[in-house]
Design brief:
Radius of gyration: 22 Å
Structural class: alpha/beta
Helix content: 25-40%
CATH architecture of the largest domain: Alpha-Beta Barrel
Largest sheet: 9 strands, mixed
CATH superfamily of the largest domain: Aldolase class I
Strand content: 15-25%
Bound molecules: iron/sulfur cluster
Number of strands: 17
Distance between the termini: 36 Å
Length: 400
């Protein structure tokens, strides 16, 4: 039994990046950060149950979790070990922003049990980093990786973004080469998504910044594939590459649509067939826990068809694809009904062998179209009483 994934959201950042629309907040100062830490501990303690849930991965995401003192991370992990049955060899990841950690902090995080660091590097040209509002230089990012390695971290991941304003394919190639010289085990590469309401989107809309055209972005994607494959990395998910055996175990929980518990403001959980979300802002979240109220904001019981389609879509994002026989068993539906859902999709986009369906490389490029096609295909499922969606009691009543 692999256990559920636990996600802890640490939402504060030193400064907001120009492209960011995550649930992240400018650092409100020590007092509020301390109150939030207290709320997170209280939320965690409320998860105690008998038997204790088995946990196979713990992920500190943000925001900038590396802004939190290592002693707070250590305290959160101690409570995790009290409340959950943490499996031996658990993966414990912390997202880090270069420029927020020093060798002493890295050492303390490793001693606390963190065994994987995921650095938000995004680019390795100073002019591009400044344009998107990052707080660090390229040199600081590379130094942070080197310091992490010296502190004993053997599982390092980098996040990069391509298609940045003013970025050329040659810039992207230089970023990839420098990033790989740092010898990470894992790399996430995302095409820039311009989110409405962000300063970057406003600058592009006003014509102050110019994005690379579609051909240049397509060139960056081929450079990414060629470079990563040439260095022994496998594209195990649309945006994620790893050396063999270094896939992110926590994210694999999401892509397998298995159960996870999200703690902290805005965090989402998927347990016993229920998807729940916690209150969005740090203030709402802290206040609810201080007053002994539920931090849940909304709860949705997933129907079989939507849970099943989500499972298929998430699996298709990975290199293993979806095993229709397995999915059919999990949801107690006839395998033929799942196969029918793929009948309308061209062979250029999906490849079928035995009961497994995978995206082709063209299918990965057009993944959103494939997913929309699947979502729009009605599945003729057996009556609800004959389906085996995991079921559990209603979670604590959400606050309306
Ligand atoms: S560090 Fe990450 S979470 Fe924080 S503002 Fe930048 S992109 Fe957003």
């Amino acid at each position: 039994m692999r256990g559920i994934g636990v996600y802890l959201h640490l939402p504060f950042c030193r400064r907001r990046c120009a492209y960011c629309d995550f649930n992240a907040w400018q650092d409100p100062g020590e007092g509020v950060r301390r109150a939030y830490h207290g709320a997170l501990l209280a939320d965690l303690r409320q998860q105690a149950s008998d038997p204790a849930p088995r946990v196979g991965s713990i992920f500190f995401g943000g925001g900038t979790p590396s802004l939190a003192p290592p002693s707070w991370i250590s305290e959160l992990l101690e409570v995790c070990r009290e409340v959950f049955e943490v499996v031996p060899g658990v993966e414990i990841t912390l997202e880090a922003n270069p420029g927020t950690l020093d060798p002493g902090n890295l050492e303390r995080l490793r001693e606390a049990g963190v065994n994987r660091l995921s650095f938000g590097v995004q680019a390795l040209e100073d002019r591009l980093l400044a344009r998107i509002g990052r707080i660090h230089s390229a040199r600081e990012a590379l130094d942070a990786l080197e310091q992490a390695r010296r502190a004993g971290f053997e599982n390092l991941s980098l996040d990069l973004i391509y298609g940045l304003p003013g970025q050329t394919p040659a810039d992207w190639q230089a970023t990839l080469d420098r990033a790989l010289e740092a010898q990470p085990q894992h790399l996430s590469a995302y095409a820039l998504s311009l989110e409405e309401g962000t300063p970057l989107e406003a600058s592009v809309r006003r014509g102050e910044l110019c994005l690379p055209d579609q051909d240049a972005v397509a060139d960056m994607e081929s450079l990414l594939r060629r470079t990563m494959r040439g260095r022994g990395f496998r594209q195990y998910e649309i945006s994620n590459w790893s050396l063999p055996g270094r896939e992110c175990r926590h994210n694999m929980v999401y892509w397998a649509n298995r159960e996870y518990l999200g703690l902290g403001c805005g965090a989402v959980s998927y347990l016993s067939g229920w998807r729940t979300r916690r209150l969005e802002t740090p203030e709402q979240y802290v206040q609810a826990l201080r007053q002994g109220r539920s931090p849940l904001f909304e709860a949705e019981r997933l129907g079989t068809e939507s849970a099943l389609k989500e499972t298929l879509i998430l699996a298709l994002r990975t290199r293993w694809g979806a095993d229709l026989a397995r999915v059919a068993r999990r949801f107690a539906v006839p395998q033929g009904r799942l196969e029918e859902a793929f009948d309308g999709l061209p062979e250029a986009l999906v490849r079928r062998s035995a009961s497994r369906v995978r995206l082709t490389s063209r299918g990965r490029d057009l993944a959103n179209e494939v997913f929309l096609g699947l979502l729009g295909t009605p599945l003729t499922l057996p009556p609800p009483g004959e389906q085996a969606l995991p079921s559990g009691p209603s979670p604590q009543a959400p606050i309306s």
